[in-house]
Amino acid sequence: MANLLLSGTLVTAGGLPAAGRFNYGLTAALGTFTRFQGPLVDGQTFTDVIRNLPGQVLVFYRAEAQNALGLVVGATRSIRTTLSLVGTVQPACATLAADEVGSGSAQLNGTVIDDMGIGVEASFEWGATPAYGEETPWVSGFTTGMTFSDELSVLRQGGAYHYRARVRNRFGIGFGGNVSFNTLEDVGSRTGLPMELALLSLEEI
User: Fold this and answer.
1) Does 2 have pLDDT greater than 50?
2) Candidates 1.10.10.10, 1.20.140.10, 2.60.40.10, 3.40.50.150; correct CATH number of 92-182?
3) What is 2-84's CATH number?
4) Exposure check for the chain: N or C terminus, fewer CB within 10 A?
């Protein structure tokens, strides 16, 4: 069986918060949806992990996003799974999109892909750049398939941030990919766009 990490980026949402998800399947017709994640703002990356896929099959997928302006979809892409897409030397995790993003706070999210059979501790690295520089405390008690989160409440309004999940046990440390988000600006300072120009667009990574 294989686990597949999907990732997409919201390019522009027309000045309105949006939610993102993935549509995937074993044919180009797709048909299986992940949960919507949000709110997302311009430039924010969102991810999800598809677990227990058959090995050596072609998986089709696309990113989708919606808000009050409607639903838009990214281009359909495909990838062939291997017998296992996760490491077998140290535990593995994935970084998920941030939730509850406000003007000065956000919830960081991750998921354990493989705990190597003995459970893991989980934490996040975060900062204003992909070099991070800050970290959250390690929390124990997580096993394969479980999600973990931590709240940040000291962020600046309208700031750009990066973070990644990490897990550890006696086999070593595993890191998730980099995910970025922007905190919200004061609602009163936003300017709206005409409906016909306020279009959503997506690009997958």
Assistant:
1) yes
2) 2.60.40.10
3) 2.60.40.10
4) C
